[in-house]
Batch of 2 targets.
Target 1
Amino acid sequence: MIASPLPDLVGRQRECAALDDLLVGLREGESRVLVVRGEAGIGKSVLLEYVAAQASQLKVTWARGIEADMELPYASLHQLCAPFLDELEELPGPQREALRVAFGMAAGDPPDRFLVGLAVLSLLTRASESRPLLVLVDDAQWLDQVSLQTLEFVARRLLAESVAMAFAVRDPEGQAALSGLPELRIGGLDSAAAGELLEATVGGRLEKRVRDRFVAEMHGNPLALLEFSRGRNAAELAYGLDASSSPSIQGPVANRVERDFAGRLVSLPAVTRTLLLIAAAEPVGDARLLVRAAASLKVTPDAAPAKAAGLIEFGESVRFRHPLVRSAVYHGAEPEERRAVHRALAEATDPVLDPDRRAWHAAQAADGPDENVASALEQAADRARRRGGIAAEAVLLERATEVTADPWPRGRRALAAAEAHFSAAAPDRATELAAVAEMYPLSALDRARLARLRARLLFARSRSDEAAPLLLEAAAQFTAAGSPLARETYLEAISATIFAGRVHGPTGARAAAIAARGSGAPSSGSMAADLLLDGVAALLTDGCETGVPALRGALGPLAHEELSTREATVRWLLLAPVALEAFIHYAWDLHAWDTLSSRAVRLARDIGALASLPPALIYAGGVHIHYGDFAMADRMIEEADAIAAATGHAPHKYATLVLAAWRGEADVAAALIEEATESAVQRGEVGLLGAMGYIQGVLFNGLARYEEAMVAARTSIDHDGFNFTGLSLVEHVEAATRCGELEQARASLVRLVELTHAAGSGWARGASARSQALLTDGDEADRLYRTAIEEFGRGGVAVEVARSHLLYGEWLRRGRRRAMAREHLRTAHEMFAAMPAHAFAERARRELIATGEHVRTRSSKPASTLTPQETQVALLAAEGMTNARIGAELFISPHTVEWHLRKVYAKLGINSRRSLPDALAGAGSAGTVNSG
């Protein structure tokens, strides 16, 4: 809205108080976020102007969403950050380059949008160092998608910065935007306040029934009341309006206000209406561009009548009184009038400085197919993609398709638009455009791309095994076309079957592997990808004896292959889950798991791939669970969940469940297991159902609820999944032997020995030896237990070393060898208590008591325990990292790092970084470093 002296905000005491509180917190150095929501005209913009007027001694920056600008990536973000771009050189290199590419200031690989978000967070933090910063965003529902996502990311990461953000969002258009952030919902004024505003505007008192009727019809909407009474006095309203002067009172308030604005346009001179239409079609508000476009239309700029009518303000920039004025002007014009104005704006826009906006205006001016316009839009889409504006790329390609007449490029552009919409998380639009592409001739390569897109769309909707045959068809088409995408697509098909969960059957992982091996597909160009496909395919078709050695051949390239471009790194990150699942569940290789998951975390951090970082952290957290370092696992899971929340993704509950199971937290696990199982059934994720069986097997074995453990583990085994079968067999053998179901236990042992034999790792040999020991007696059982302890130790699987000591100790006690039993039970209890794996520790404690040992229960966690985030910050600071480096590593600002460190110092009783290494070592032995 037009900046003007603020009227007394009648009836908005509650809202003003909330905004005043935001400013109080900001002045005290606190971060604050508030989303102001309400219908059009309800007063959101006025409230933002109010808080800006109260922000004396603060820095204030604005961004205003404009509907016509929604297809230009980072347009609104650039507007907001423009005052601070002189600080750009002070940002860490990756952040600086990401922002420069996003804003079109440099060429480069498309930046990860969340790395851009971190760069904006850093930039705003630096801007706030001299004075607290107030960020105001009006009409957020009309920000371009990537700007909105970036600002939402920043808002969710604010913690200790002197930055406050206030957004105004129109409902219902913006209902989904910024959800979960603190809200201030704005309703209509109550009857008394609305009546007061109406009478103040008309300059006199109204008869009560007349006043109440007008207030009721406008639902207390301030803009409706103000515009309704504009130019009318109390006398004119005394008996209500006649038909000639009253806008329709039917329909939503916003529609009535827009019709009232449209009514005022009729009396304006034609040249003024044309000038207003140019301004409505040109979203930036560039007065010089408007003058050039007007000259192109041979219109002499005459804004005086529009200014007198209170519709627009002209100065260095052009601003409408309200977005509804812009809407009334634009939509009230005839289509040919709009096309003429866009044509003039395209001619007036600099083709070098702003080619994308020129192309967009030219597209809006087209009244039929135009290859020049389509080509310009395609080039604009490519520029948008290189800046990371995937949603903008999709819209530009879609418009290019619409103005393309030739069937061949029309099909190709429709396919590209569909792929871009899928990448932008708009599967419905992607499906529609895929159907358009199918109607036109496509090259063999494009046909394969279309088949792959359809499979991906199906897999995104439901993790069922229906997508795999479509991916195999696409891979075969890529092979026939000689494309390096063939092997990648075969690996994607196998991956889909792995996560759908089936190994056998016509749509299972084995069928996909057989197809891949017999395809003769050309090299993908990546040794790591090619060897991984060969290894996984051999594993599924020939079995473990052949497959595991082939799989091990891929480890070196996967761990060390040079990744020279961002695209190569992204492709590696897409391979990582398949590789990890194979090395975990068939090679039983914890060290490979550690190597690959650590590289995945490092690579995701290096390129700022925040979509890939949470799953990488989850895999790395799984390593630390098996190392018995639950504190580190907890930190990784907590970071993954925090990033997922900040980026709008669902949290990865699997790792939380595994950790809860090992800790023996039945109450925590129960609700999560039920929710995850229900989701898996709905989405057809058989693999997740298998995981639930393994998780419950661990949980119930720890709690000595063996019958429940046996049933759960059996369920996982019977699911015919690629993963978790081996781990579930281990749980099933233990539970079945404890339940006296020896035949079941022996059957599972046979399968386990087959699965572990080829792996030859300490983990595999330990699992086989311990499971055999459970079904053996005498000296052989003794030897097998000792072997299990040794092999698990060699494999680094600390949780299984502790379990082996526990089972060996239980066996020794039953054999009345109490002294030796105490030794192993004491070791088990100490290891489990240190992790802490509460249920297993309690099992060991009960067994120790049965041997006559007195066992002290550990004291509860001290009040000064560091949180996972504090521990992470402290450990990195102890390694000598600067605040800026720690912030880049953890995707938080340096100010937040310092805030965490102050809390760490207070809890550890120190006052500098130099004391951190010793303090952390002492805290770890005292149990004050977080263990969850």
Target 2
Amino acid sequence: MENIVLGLLAHVDRGKTSLSEALLYESGRISEKGRVDHGDSVLDKDSLERKKGITIYAKSVYFTKENKRFFLLDTPGHQEFSSEMERCLAVIDYGILLIDGNDGIQKRELHLFERAREKGIPLFLVVNKMDLFQGDREALLREIQEAFSSDGIIDFSPYDFSDLAAFLKEEDFFQGVDSKENVALEKKEAIEQMAVPLEGCQDFLENLALLSEEGTAEYLENGRLPLGFLRENLQKRKLFPLFFTSALKQEGITQLFSWIFALCQMPTYSEELRGILYKISKSPEGRRIGRAKLLGGSLSLRQEWRPSEKALELHLEGVEEEAVESVEPGMLFTMPISENAGLGYFPEDDHREKEKEGYFPTLLSIEGEEILQYRKELEELQKEFPEWGISISLAEKQVTAQLSGNLQKELLTDLFAKRLGKKLHFSKPKLRYGESPRRGAYGRGAVLEPGHRISLLLRLIPVEGEFHREQQKAGEEKQQKNSKKRSIFSIEKMGELPEEWISRLETEWAEEHFSGPLLSGPYENYALEITNLSFSRGSAYYVDFQEAVYQAFSMAQATAGVRLLMPYFSYEISASQEKLGKILQEIERQKGKQEELLSEGESYQLLGKIPGASLSELQSFVQEEGESFSFSFSSYQEMEEEQALAVLEEHFGIPVEELSLTTAGKLYYGEELVSEAPLGQDGWEENASGGKPGDSSLKLNASASLQLKNQGERPEKKKKAGEETPSLEEELDAIFERTFGPLRNRGQEAIRTEQKLFLSKEKEARLEEARAQYAKKGKKNKRKKILVDGYNFLFAKEEWKALAQTDLMAGREQILPLLSEYAAYHDVDLYLIFDAYRVKSNPEKTLQPDPRMQVIFTKEGESADFALSRMANDFSQSGYPVVVVSSDQAVQIQGFSGKGAIVYSSKEFALQVEDMKKRISDSL
């Protein structure tokens, strides 16, 4: 069965949901069509969707015909929910772009057409609501062709595929003919015996043939076109089949359905397990549900789909949700997921790879030529090797790639030489530094238009880097029980805001990648506090709230100053014993932090972290020694002031002592710490002599420069003669004065107060950290914690396994006294953990046979692997020595990397238990 994902793309109110109902009805999947205005459509199940009559959440439903299964993916059309649509583009094989016949081509349609082009998605164009259209169809067709600048937009709507099947055959007409005369005769007879073409059919076929010279030659010679010719041109986006329809009245749907079935083909997938998680939502019961597409291999129930996480349930979305035992490549499906799972590809954590691409790009070039002239070939490489992170920037006229090592460079160089006969050059990887606020700062934001009025004050607060790592751990059960998940936002009078506004803002903010004002690096390590919120529900909407927050954030960001952050990378090195010493010395020389050393037969695995400034040198050294090296982005850490100033001097090309005289200095130190001299036309401060203290080599982030130069400036509104138009700053002051009383420059006062408070809090926090470290060092002889995967250990010995297969409870009872005796003998705390995640509504259950041992049955939805990982994290962070016992040793090593945990396989630990029994027996 071929699996094909068909995505519906359109602006709001183009009839997407009506079209989905019409296609489901045509396929026989439903016996009666629902309607948006009646609130009974199949895909718009959410109450708000039915109330508003629009699609808010992406959903899928499938239908089948013969050997093809189509997954119809309905995406949101409203611009406010465009991020949801963007995530769906990664899983769509073919798209249907809807156009309102009465409204014609709007800006949104052009945007969607361009996004599909960028993603390489073939498109069917559907001009809907033609039952209301009163104009000329031919004129409308020409308008669409001109708007999209494509001659490949051809009207298919007059013909069902069956009408033209005789003229669009995949197999050759003529086989077994051996003479030229017979060939010519056979062709003539075959053409004469064809069904008489429908009216206008000849023009239609000729228009298709003109898509390429090969097609023209084929049609002139044989009087037909291979169906593969149409499919190929559809895939290459040279052909855009167009249909005039009225989905509500089922007009034109039969033709559309027949051509979709004839032209769409399932992509080729690999045999290796691979997929993409494109959406995460919550079920009514509060479970996290992941929506995914399988891109390779197969996935069955209880199979591990990412490290330490198994597919506990698998469902296909449809008219009714359908549970399945397994999914195949190309299928859309849903499954419950843990808090640790995130959007992106699996089983590899590809969203982490995407972060790495942004931090360490390598510039590609061809000597003496413009590399962008090979854009087509580069785009093909993007699709062939997505892991290389090839990025094409037309605005900056450059191409970058994120290559993990010399072998990838060699392969890319070889491909360029073979395909283009060109030698590819690589620049030294350019490090991308992070940025964070130097001090607390305030910003104000407001939307002041008729029917849209909201104002607020935002405080930007620097936080320690650990804050974001705590956020990631906040989903763990312990923190769920004891505290709410920490948010980057703190909102005064939160109850006054609609709950969905807060949720959407937090979600969108987490997905947004904000750039710093100085070097355009990722902006990290901050929290936001919103106060002085003024609005009324009848005169403000979420988009107004969002815009006001963004305004205030930009204002605060421009005055808070900047601390530069060094990106740190986690490395993994496999080294032979004879090279181990040299590599460890090089790691120390490059100021890396070696965290874990694992023995793997005759080789060693080194795990640790390295500052980005030293990464390239360490990688080159290890690879020159003939050993393997891989890395991934880990975190940002604050740089020393001297090192940060050296980076700025190199980047801007100005001496450190002159930095404070420039706009860059304003951004780095914060505006109020620099003299308030006027800015020149390019953003530099002019000195007393009228010159500029620097040179043109300063490459300041343009948006940041404009923020400083134009803050408060807005286009003037119409004014009466002799009347001065107040600036936005004056308008804001007036609004705040009316709302909160006279202004006394409290922003500046608050900034100074906050700086003092922040410095005192920072000092106190450091003292607390020092006390905690001292207390941690002072705690001696903490009892070792041994975490045992119960069922893995139970099957470690054949006699235990045989008993367990006969009577599972008896098998468990057999190993309990052995492990209890082991815990008492070695004076350790032992935790025996059994999977119980498939037991419905099962809470975590703990038994304690004796003071040294606990038996834990995991709760519903939590595997033993996950429980082991969670408990190992908690114990390690509390300073306890930890031992993990699991047969899945590779997964456990990855899960506990850098946490100081010792890992044994179940068989190895069983031998230790047997050895303990022997020692006791010998001593008696």
